Amino acid sequence: MPSFGLSCNASNEFEDEETRLQADIDEIFRIVPSAPGAKPLCYRFSPKKVCSSPSEKSENEKDLFWKRSPSVDSLDSVCNGIFELIASGSKTDQTVEYNRVNDMTPLERLEDMLPPFRVCLSGRVNPFPASCNNEPNFYRKTFLSTIFAGSFAGNNGLDLQPVIFKGSQSTRSDRKLRIEARVMQLFVNNDKFLKIHGSINDVTNRHHRLGDFALITEFVGNEESHLSYTLDEVCVSMKIEMGFSRITAIKMGIDIAHALRSMHMAGLLHCNLTCKSVLIKPNEPRYTVKIIKLGNTCLIDAPIGLDIKHSGIKTNPFTIVNEIEDDFAPELYQQGALPSIKTDVYSLGTILYELGSFGYVASMKRLGKECMSQKPEDRPSLETVIATMKNTLRPGAARGPRTRPNGPKTLG
């Protein structure tokens, strides 16, 4: 029986193919770095049995004309080795990152997560003069901080528009203000939050008292009087006479709930959401709301305990002084209690209750009371809250008077 053999050229072709395959594997291992402490892996090819004749009936007839071929086990070993290296390196990186984050305080973790804010502007601060005294309009003095409306002259594109200045005058209040700036930067494309234009440093003019660090944000309010209004001033204390329809009240509630949900989806808690934390701008065809007071923001998975007082003087810029006890969830007054998504929902409920009372929307008041349930587990999710308010807008829903008249309201 004549025998069949491989020519020298065929043999060389298969030798070259194996060399190329081996070179590819070597290149992969060169690109994929070894993890620290990883053992070297064997990834050389092993030979397989070769038949000597095409007429030979055997299970290995398919390997005819192959001088050498890489075994499946050898290739499988290479792939598994690469996966092990990647997994080992990934686990090592995860361990290092876990240890780094675990050593941080909740406040440090928040600052590590928020995007940096480095937009520093230069120019001249021009407070809007008040009509009856020398203080700037919308001048408000809080704990070592100052807020007022004005204009900012300089090569910054803000010359022709009113802005709000908010400054700090201590290291601790400066840190809180910088957190607020970074949160606003995170939501710069969300129209439910104040748009931040930039910051200014070392503004020591005694007239406007902005201190070492100040923020410049968009102005929200009456552009003729340069006054800004909070929801508290309109619906609760009623210092400002302003009426709006029940539909506007519901839509304002939906906007506030959407803003809070945006924070939760970003892994953040507001922690200081009250009627004083919402600015109102009387726009056409309906009012605009903006969420403010973001300095007490914290991470959902690393909450910071709140220091809430009903009266007295602040001794810490992170302390919340609020005269209305019901503005915050009851569990926050317990020793060692921490804020959560449910405590934010409770605070939202107080706002919805006031909006429902002011706009004569009974269903909104009921929803606010539900959000203010004493037990956190009884409070609805934000998705449920939003869906309920949207359902109230449907034709045929129970309606009260179309417009809230100006004047005192009765809670009940």
Describe the structure.
This protein is an alpha+beta fold and 412 residues long. The chain folds into three domains: 8-103, no CATH class; 110-223, Phosphorylase Kinase, domain 1 (2-Layer Sandwich); 228-412, Orthogonal Bundle (Transferase(Phosphotransferase), domain 1). It is built from nine helices and 13 strands. Strands 1, 2, 3, 4, 5 and 6 form a six-stranded antiparallel sheet that branches. Strands 7-9-10 form a three-stranded antiparallel sheet. It is globular and about 90 Å long. The termini are far apart. Residues 1-7, 38-69 and 400-412 have low confidence and may be disordered.
CATH class of the largest domain: Mainly Alpha
Number of strands: 13
Question: CATH architecture of the largest domain, please?
Answer: Orthogonal Bundle
Distance between the termini: 109 Å
Uncertain segments: 1-7, 38-69, 400-412
Reported by name, the CATH topology of the largest domain is Transferase(Phosphotransferase), domain 1
Please supply descriptive tags for the structure shown above.
single chain, 412 residues, alpha+beta, Phosphorylase Kinase, domain 1, Transferase(Phosphotransferase), domain 1, 3 domains, six-stranded antiparallel sheet, three-stranded antiparallel sheet, 9 helices, 13 strands, 35% helix, globular, disordered N terminus, disordered C terminus
